[in-house]
Inverse folding.
Protein backbone atom coordinates (compact mmCIF):
# COMPACT_ATOMS: atom_id res chain seq x y z
CA UNK A 1 0.00 0.00 0.00
CA UNK A 2 2.68 2.57 1.01
CA UNK A 3 4.99 1.89 -1.98
CA UNK A 4 1.97 2.22 -4.25
CA UNK A 5 1.01 5.58 -2.72
CA UNK A 6 4.64 6.73 -2.88
CA UNK A 7 4.75 5.82 -6.57
CA UNK A 8 1.53 7.76 -7.16
CA UNK A 9 3.09 10.89 -5.65
CA UNK A 10 5.26 11.16 -8.73
CA UNK A 11 8.35 13.33 -8.79
CA UNK A 12 7.28 15.17 -5.61
CA UNK A 13 7.24 11.94 -3.60
CA UNK A 14 10.85 12.08 -2.45
CA UNK A 15 10.83 15.74 -1.25
CA UNK A 16 7.53 15.19 0.58
CA UNK A 17 8.78 12.02 2.28
CA UNK A 18 12.02 13.79 3.28
CA UNK A 19 9.97 16.66 4.78
CA UNK A 20 7.78 14.17 6.63
CA UNK A 21 10.73 12.23 8.09
CA UNK A 22 12.59 15.42 9.06
CA UNK A 23 9.52 16.90 10.74
CA UNK A 24 8.87 13.68 12.67
CA UNK A 25 12.49 13.44 13.86
CA UNK A 26 12.59 17.10 14.93
CA UNK A 27 9.29 16.83 16.80
CA UNK A 28 10.46 13.72 18.66
CA UNK A 29 13.78 15.39 19.54
CA UNK A 30 12.00 18.49 20.87
CA UNK A 31 9.58 16.40 22.96
CA UNK A 32 12.49 14.46 24.45
CA UNK A 33 14.36 17.71 25.18
CA UNK A 34 11.44 19.51 26.80
CA UNK A 35 10.11 16.53 28.76
CA UNK A 36 13.23 14.65 29.79
CA UNK A 37 16.11 17.12 29.59
CA UNK A 38 14.66 20.22 31.23
CA UNK A 39 10.99 19.89 32.04
CA UNK A 40 9.67 23.26 33.19
CA UNK A 41 13.08 24.94 32.98
CA UNK A 42 14.47 23.59 36.26
CA UNK A 43 18.06 23.47 34.98
CA UNK A 44 17.72 26.96 33.55
CA UNK A 45 16.41 28.31 36.85
CA UNK A 46 19.19 26.58 38.81
CA UNK A 47 21.82 28.08 36.51
CA UNK A 48 20.25 31.54 36.84
CA UNK A 49 20.11 31.31 40.63
CA UNK A 50 23.75 30.25 40.73
CA UNK A 51 24.73 33.25 38.61
CA UNK A 52 22.73 35.56 40.89
CA UNK A 53 24.41 34.15 43.98
CA UNK A 54 27.86 34.53 42.41
CA UNK A 55 27.14 38.19 41.68
CA UNK A 56 25.08 38.96 44.78
CA UNK A 57 27.46 41.74 45.89
CA UNK A 58 27.04 43.71 42.66
CA UNK A 59 24.32 46.33 42.29
CA UNK A 60 20.92 45.16 41.09
CA UNK A 61 21.00 46.55 37.55
CA UNK A 62 24.40 44.99 36.83
CA UNK A 63 23.31 41.69 38.39
CA UNK A 64 20.17 41.56 36.28
CA UNK A 65 22.13 42.45 33.14
CA UNK A 66 24.52 39.56 33.81
CA UNK A 67 21.58 37.18 34.21
CA UNK A 68 19.91 38.51 31.05
CA UNK A 69 23.08 37.86 29.02
CA UNK A 70 23.32 34.36 30.51
CA UNK A 71 19.67 33.65 29.61
CA UNK A 72 20.23 34.82 26.03
CA UNK A 73 23.19 32.45 25.74
CA UNK A 74 21.14 29.53 27.06
CA UNK A 75 18.16 30.10 24.71
CA UNK A 76 19.84 28.28 21.84
CA UNK A 77 19.06 24.71 22.98
CA UNK A 78 15.44 25.67 23.66
CA UNK A 79 15.04 27.10 20.14
CA UNK A 80 16.93 24.39 18.26
CA UNK A 81 14.99 23.03 15.30
CA UNK A 82 12.01 25.39 15.56
CA UNK A 83 12.99 27.45 12.50
CA UNK A 84 13.43 24.26 10.47
CA UNK A 85 10.02 22.99 11.64
CA UNK A 86 8.41 26.25 10.53
CA UNK A 87 10.20 26.03 7.19
CA UNK A 88 8.97 22.46 6.64
CA UNK A 89 5.43 23.60 7.53
CA UNK A 90 5.71 26.33 4.89
CA UNK A 91 7.38 24.25 2.17
CA UNK A 92 5.25 21.08 2.37
CA UNK A 93 2.02 22.58 0.98
CA UNK A 94 4.01 24.31 -1.76
CA UNK A 95 5.60 21.00 -2.72
CA UNK A 96 2.11 19.48 -2.69
CA UNK A 97 0.84 22.28 -4.92
CA UNK A 98 3.75 21.76 -7.30
CA UNK A 99 2.83 18.06 -7.41
CA UNK A 100 -0.75 19.06 -8.19
CA UNK A 101 0.35 21.20 -11.11
CA UNK A 102 2.66 18.46 -12.41
CA UNK A 103 -0.18 15.91 -12.11
CA UNK A 104 -2.56 18.13 -14.07
CA UNK A 105 0.13 18.74 -16.72
CA UNK A 106 0.56 14.96 -16.95
CA UNK A 107 -3.20 14.50 -17.36
CA UNK A 108 -3.30 17.06 -20.19
CA UNK A 109 -0.26 15.45 -21.82
CA UNK A 110 -2.15 12.13 -21.96
CA UNK A 111 -5.15 13.90 -23.48
CA UNK A 112 -2.99 15.66 -26.07
CA UNK A 113 -1.19 12.44 -27.05
CA UNK A 114 -4.43 10.54 -27.65
CA UNK A 115 -6.34 10.67 -30.92
CA UNK A 116 -9.28 8.81 -29.39
CA UNK A 117 -12.15 10.47 -27.53
CA UNK A 118 -11.27 11.58 -24.00
CA UNK A 119 -12.39 9.19 -21.28
CA UNK A 120 -12.15 9.62 -17.49
CA UNK A 121 -9.64 6.76 -17.33
CA UNK A 122 -7.19 8.76 -19.43
CA UNK A 123 -6.93 11.63 -16.97
CA UNK A 124 -7.63 9.76 -13.73
CA UNK A 125 -3.99 8.86 -13.08
CA UNK A 126 -2.79 12.48 -13.44
CA UNK A 127 -5.63 13.81 -11.28
CA UNK A 128 -4.94 11.12 -8.66
CA UNK A 129 -1.32 12.26 -8.47
CA UNK A 130 -2.44 15.89 -8.29
CA UNK A 131 -4.85 15.40 -5.42
CA UNK A 132 -2.61 12.99 -3.53
CA UNK A 133 0.39 15.33 -3.48
CA UNK A 134 -1.75 18.21 -2.25
CA UNK A 135 -3.24 16.07 0.53
CA UNK A 136 0.17 14.70 1.50
CA UNK A 137 1.71 18.20 1.63
CA UNK A 138 -1.09 19.43 3.89
CA UNK A 139 -0.87 16.33 6.11
CA UNK A 140 2.79 17.18 6.72
CA UNK A 141 2.30 20.94 7.15
CA UNK A 142 -0.58 21.01 9.64
CA UNK A 143 0.89 18.85 12.43
CA UNK A 144 4.34 20.37 11.88
CA UNK A 145 2.97 23.89 12.29
CA UNK A 146 1.02 22.88 15.40
CA UNK A 147 4.11 21.29 16.97
CA UNK A 148 6.36 24.24 16.05
CA UNK A 149 3.89 26.70 17.60
CA UNK A 150 3.48 24.53 20.68
CA UNK A 151 7.23 24.22 21.22
CA UNK A 152 7.70 27.98 20.76
CA UNK A 153 4.94 28.68 23.31
CA UNK A 154 6.46 26.15 25.73
CA UNK A 155 9.88 27.78 25.36
CA UNK A 156 8.43 31.26 25.92
CA UNK A 157 6.56 30.07 28.99
CA UNK A 158 9.72 28.56 30.48
CA UNK A 159 11.71 31.75 29.90
CA UNK A 160 8.98 34.03 31.23
CA UNK A 161 8.58 31.99 34.43
CA UNK A 162 12.35 31.71 34.89
CA UNK A 163 12.86 35.45 34.32
CA UNK A 164 10.13 36.29 36.82
CA UNK A 165 11.60 33.98 39.46
CA UNK A 166 15.12 35.31 38.91
CA UNK A 167 13.90 38.92 39.12
CA UNK A 168 12.11 38.11 42.38
CA UNK A 169 15.24 36.51 43.80
CA UNK A 170 17.36 39.47 42.68
CA UNK A 171 14.91 41.85 44.37
CA UNK A 172 15.12 39.77 47.54
CA UNK A 173 18.92 39.97 47.43
CA UNK A 174 18.69 43.73 46.99
CA UNK A 175 16.34 44.05 49.94
CA UNK A 176 18.58 41.90 52.13
CA UNK A 177 21.57 44.17 51.57
CA UNK A 178 20.04 47.64 51.34
CA UNK A 179 17.20 48.04 53.88
CA UNK A 180 18.33 50.26 56.80
CA UNK A 181 17.49 49.12 60.33
CA UNK A 182 16.54 51.42 63.25
CA UNK A 183 20.11 52.68 63.67
CA UNK A 184 20.50 53.60 60.00
CA UNK A 185 22.95 50.72 59.41
CA UNK A 186 22.78 48.32 56.50
CA UNK A 187 21.10 45.00 57.18
CA UNK A 188 23.31 42.09 56.27
CA UNK A 189 21.03 39.35 57.60
CA UNK A 190 18.20 38.08 55.43
CA UNK A 191 14.97 40.03 55.85
CA UNK A 192 11.69 38.46 56.83
CA UNK A 193 10.24 39.33 53.42
CA UNK A 194 10.33 36.25 51.19
CA UNK A 195 9.55 36.38 47.53
CA UNK A 196 8.02 33.15 46.24
CA UNK A 197 10.23 31.34 43.80
Amino acid sequence: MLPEIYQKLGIMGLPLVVCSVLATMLCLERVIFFVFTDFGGRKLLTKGLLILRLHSRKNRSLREEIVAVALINTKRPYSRGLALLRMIAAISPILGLLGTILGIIDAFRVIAASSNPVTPNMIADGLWEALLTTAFGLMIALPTLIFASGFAAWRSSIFERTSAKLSAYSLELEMQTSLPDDGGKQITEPTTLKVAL
The two ends are 55 Å apart (CA to CA). Residues 180 and 186 are 5 Å apart (CA to CA). Residues 2-156 form one domain. Residues 120-178 form the longest helix (59 residues).
